[in-house]
Amino acid sequence: MNKQQGKISYDRGSRVLSLAVGKGKSVDSDIRGNVVIDVDKKGNPVRVDIHSFSFDAFRAGKGKLEHFLGSKARVVQLR
């Protein structure tokens, strides 16, 4: 039987808990609240990141950030 070992890591600087749950390469991500699930080309999860902030709160404040940075800055679109 082939058992797959997961890997858990924590980045203190960015305060992100990462769980490697698969071996494939991430090709897409699904963002729900403060959780990001990376999936491979077959849609299988390969990594789960739990952030100490909420992406929903970031989206809500994105207009303020763009205003602060000025018209030349471009803020990445989050789904």
Number of helical elements: 1
Q: What proportion of the residues form beta strands (DSSP E)?
A: 25-35%
Biggest sheet, spatial arrangement of strands: 1-2-5-4-3
**Rg value:** 16 Å
Low-confidence stretches: none
Please tell me what the overall shape is.
Answer: globular
Residues in helix, %? 10-25%
Major sheet description? 5 strands, antiparallel
Total DSSP E strands: 5
Roughly how many Å apart are the termini? Answer: 38 Å
Category by helix and strand content = alpha+beta
Order of helices and strands: EEEEEH
What is the mean predicted local confidence, pLDDT?
79
Give an overview in words.
By secondary structure, the chain is α+β, with helices and mostly antiparallel strands. It is 19% helix and 34% strand. It is built from one helix and five strands, in the order βββββα. Strands 1-2-5-4-3 form a five-stranded antiparallel beta sheet, with no helix packed on it. The protein starts with 6 loop residues before the first strand and ends in a 10-residue tail after the last helix.
Write the layout of secondary structure elements.
Blueprint: E1 7-11, E2 16-20, E3 28-32, E4 35-39, E5 45-51, H1 55-69
Features:
single chain; 79 residues; alpha+beta; 5-stranded antiparallel beta sheet; 19% helix; globular
